[in-house]
Amino acid sequence: MDKDIEKILFTNEDIKTAVQKLGKKLTEDYHDKNPVVVGILRGAAPFMIDLIQAMDCYMEIDFMAVSSYGDDTKSSGSVKIIKDLDTDVADRHVLIVEDIIDSGRTAQALRELFAAKNAASVKICSLLDKPARREVDAKADYVGIDTPNEFVVGYGLDFRQQYRNLPYIGVLKPEVYQD
Fold this sequence. Notes:
3-stranded antiparallel beta sheet; 9 strands; globular
């Protein structure tokens, strides 16, 4: 897989540092709220596992699967819920954990969904933020690392379900994803 990577943007150490910083801040903000921490499958799974271990507070966890990309490199513009929560979030503080905020459409749709489920609060924590690709006015409340407008994979981020297991975040060579 390494041969498909043009360059490494964020090393495993960079990621660990960002996760520890976020964990400390989230511990402060949620120490007395017993949040429902919602991981967005599949990309956020590695980040979420590391993040909740960096948080020192009571919490529940759950997962959702949503899709706006399919196998493409650009968002389709519509967000499809593939797996909804098992937890009732009415009157609960919800912390959505995302791998990346790109177009912003998924973040916007999830905020609206949890507001409709009467969550007490809805915040988003994203490992990466790519504001250059924003199509709607949506942002994360907590961001680990700002990333340039490049096609990134690794540490949960994928291309056609591959590269998620790389221990770093790198830029995929264009010849790999351009048809």
